[in-house]
């Protein structure tokens, strides 16, 4: 589902739990949202996050994906060299060696 695909003017995304439905975040959901600077998906009760979800998001420097248990390994492909990511321990184990050195990591239970 290409929900926000090519939304060039969107800067911040926070989705309250009442707006989130199962499987809304699939391949290319936020692709080419190059003005996007922060995203909070902490209310999504999902199992995994596809890395292509942030393809082309060159300014995305805050990501809260703490509700996801698994994250594919090329999540940081198009992201800036510095930023902050909030994730749980399971997802951290998937990508711990791939998180850029200048990204701040916040681990939750």
Model description:
Helix content is 6%, strand content 25%. With 109 residues, the chain is mainly beta. The protein is globular. It has one helix at residues 89-95, and strands at 12-14, 38-40, 48-49, 62-64, 70-71, 82-88, 102-108. Helix 1 (89-95) links the parallel strand 6 and strand 7. It has one domain.
Low-pLDDT stretches are none
Mean model confidence by pLDDT? 82
What is the overall shape? Answer: globular
Number of E strands: 7
Note the beta-strand portion: 15-25%
Give the helix level as a range of percent.
Answer: under 10%
Largest pleated sheet: 5 strands, parallel
Strands across the major sheet, in which order? Answer: 1-2-4-6-7
* Structure classification: mainly beta
Number of domains: 1
Q: What is the H-and-E element order?
A: EEEEEEHE
Overall radius of gyration: 12 Å
Number of helices: 1
Outline:
The chain has 109 residues and is mainly β.
Summary keywords:
1 helix, globular, 109 residues, five-stranded parallel beta sheet, single chain, two-stranded parallel sheet, mainly beta
SSE blueprint:
Layout: E1 12-14, E2 38-40, E3 48-49, E4 62-64, E5 70-71, E6 82-88, H1 89-95, E7 102-108
